[in-house]
Amino acid sequence: MNVLEFAQQLPSAPPPPVVDESRGLSRVANIRQDFVAPNLLEREGPQNAPAVLIIAPAAAGKSTAAEAIAASSNGLLADLAGQRVADGSFVGLLDEGLGEDASLTFKRSLRAGHSTLVLDALDETHVSSSEANFVAFLQGLARFLRTSQGARNVVLMARHESAEWVRFAFDTENVPIAELELDYFSRDQALAYLDLKLDALFRKNERTLAHRQHRESFQTSRDTVLSRLGEAAGYPTLDQAWTSANGRRLLGYSPVLEGLATYLHVPDFRNLDVGHLTTLTDTFPEWTLLSNLMLRLLEREHDKFLNNWLDDISRAMFTAEQLNNLYDVREQCSRLAVRSFKHSTTTDFDEQVPDSLVDSYRAAIESQLSNHPLLATNDQFVNSTFRDYVAAFVLVNGSHDEQRAVARVLRGGSDLPSPGLAPFMLSLLEDRALSTELLDLALASLGAREEARAQYSFSLRSLRSDGLLTIELDSSMGEAPAVMTVPTHSPGTVLLPARIKRLDLTTDDEVRIEGRSLRIGPDVQIDAMFVTLKGAECAIEAHRGLSIRGQIVTADWDQQVRISGQGLLIEAVESEGWVQRFSREPSLSEDRADVQEYYHALRRLLRFFRRTQHVAAGTLAADKEQIWRFVLRTDDKADAIMKTLTDDGYVRYHGPEYRLSQDFLASLALSFEDIGRAIVTPELSRFLHRVAQQAAAPESP
């Protein structure tokens, strides 16, 4: 049963004329031309209840459906937006809007089941009237209906939060109420809705209806865009997206379709870009498209907020830049994250608002958020895609405290990692660097995406020399793997997810792998300063060879460990926990013990050198204070190596830094990564022997 079929079952005695429209009453003559009747799902309540509650998320078309029901049933529409209600307001509303005599006649007709009344915008009046007054209003309505002989001829439209109070009020008055739910559009309904929205857009701009005139070209472009969005939600085919409840919450949601209509509003569909809308490479074209769509939805909310809140006088108190910053995308995502993820870290957005408007601003924000199109309830998103976007936006653009708060919630969530989080994070980064403190969330999301989609896999390689994270994606259909390179920024720690299949990571920082159950392998190589494995259990698949190298590698002694395969290699100068049973020191098997120590000293030194933007190509820089404090002060062999490198001209002083020429590594026939992987060449062995001999030689008098 759709909305119009439901309306045709309602009584249709005409209501009296409205004498005072300020009370929100009106008679709707016609159904809007762009209306597509969504289906109604039966929830609960008796068929002969005097009232019916229709529940839907914000921006799902409740008001449009309310108008259609009123028009089709010849009923009276009560738009409660802007109305303050309390006990007795229901009768007062009718008396003032219709006049006392006409109101008395209408109320009798309503109780007799001959007329229909549609109450819309309950959520708005809930916010403006206070909870106690809102409940009192509903209880008054329920008492009015206690002796009603009608069946479902009083229709209430509300979101889930307000619906709870409707149930409570009718329950306390012992009056039954039926419940229906406004469903998301089906595939056919969504396509019809897109057509009608495009009709309106083309006519508004006095253009030819290109989507009808060039139907085949339009349908191809439309289906391609919808397929992209379906892929973004994790569905390999469009059919699978439409048959999934979560897929329909995205593709069949009217705000998403309205955004798509504006995107498809072009004169020539052959030139439509269906997936390359940001500076991101084409690795995730469907996610760049969806990111762009999400941005449009939030920018529209920004415009709507300003129009609802500011009059001409108040608007003149702000500069154009300040208006752009009010309730912008960042503020919306920040506030939505606080609501949904329930963290307490907040940003003060009120400082740009004049003191005289702060209270008004906060009240308007509360009302706008309560009806935000991304939310199905007060703190639950309409679908997982909206949730992923908000989380990714805060992780990429939020303050450091906000990032940590949201990351903490995501790491503790039972339904995460979500396959959609990483693509949104990467598309929102643009040319900025990804913090390695968030790397675990990005990699866990890519891993979940790999599990969810056929013919999709990814591997990762981090190149220490230039701070880049390289993700190789073997996407589908036998095509060559796509490669995406993302700059990274490390505050000193690289966090990795509990599940790692393929990883080649070399870093100067600490690496932490944390989770309740760790699963590592089969293709993993890690080389870091410190490596920590933290979790209740750890499963390692080492059939193809798995290596973990670090100055210090630690794990818990009581960690339950399961190792399959014989290829596990753990190299560490120091180790703690169960890894001690498998670890060995990096060695030069044919060299003397003191030469091995020089080798460890060289590795320690080189970990402090890195390529930075302020040094010339072919040169690495290291902080003199750090090297002195952590290496040279306590390691005489490292000190001997530095003297030799200085004498050979490979190291020179430059203010607070040491500068190392990469010609030194070339002279050893090694790369920077080779040193980290304990690769030894004859040239390296000869160099270490020379340093050891020079250090052992007596000093000249």
Task: Name a few traits of the molecule.
701 residues, alpha/beta, Rossmann fold, 13-stranded mixed sheet, seven-stranded mixed sheet, 28 helices
CATH top level assignment of the domain at 3-182: Alpha Beta
Whole-angstrom Rg: 33 Å
Tally the beta strands: 23
Question: In whole angstroms, how far apart are the ends?
Answer: 103 Å
Count of separate DSSP helical elements = 28
Q: Classify the helix fraction into a percent range.
A: 40-55%
Please state the structural category: alpha/beta
CATH architecture of the domain at 3-182: 3-Layer(aba) Sandwich
Q: Look at the structure and give the mean pLDDT.
A: 83
The proportion of residues in beta strands is 15-25%
Low-pLDDT parts are: 275-282, 475-479, 588-592
Note the overall shape: elongated
Question: What is the fold-level CATH name, i.e. the topology of the domain at 3-182?
Answer: Rossmann fold
Largest sheet features: 13 strands, mixed
List the helices and strands and how they pair.
Elements: H1 3-7, E1 25-27, E2 40-44, E3 51-55, H2 62-73, E4 76-79, H3 89-98, H4 100-111, E5 117-120, H5 122-129, H6 131-145, E6 154-158, H7 160-172, E7 177-182, H8 187-204, H9 210-213, H10 215-232, H11 238-243, H12 245-251, H13 254-263, H14 285-309, H15 312-315, H16 320-325, H17 329-341, H18 358-370, H19 384-397, H20 400-411, H21 421-429, E8 434-435, H22 439-452, E9 457-463, E10 468-474, E11 482-489, E12 493-496, E13 499-506, E14 510-514, E15 517-534, E16 537-541, E17 546-555, E18 560-564, E19 568-576, E20 583-584, H23 593-606, E21 619-623, H24 624-632, H25 636-647, E22 651-654, E23 657-661, H26 663-667, H27 672-676, H28 682-696
Parallel strand pairs: 3-6, 3-7, 4-5, 5-6, 8-11, 9-13, 12-14, 13-15, 14-15, 15-16, 15-17, 16-18, 17-19, 19-20
Antiparallel strand pairs: 1-4, 2-7, 9-10, 10-11, 21-23, 22-23
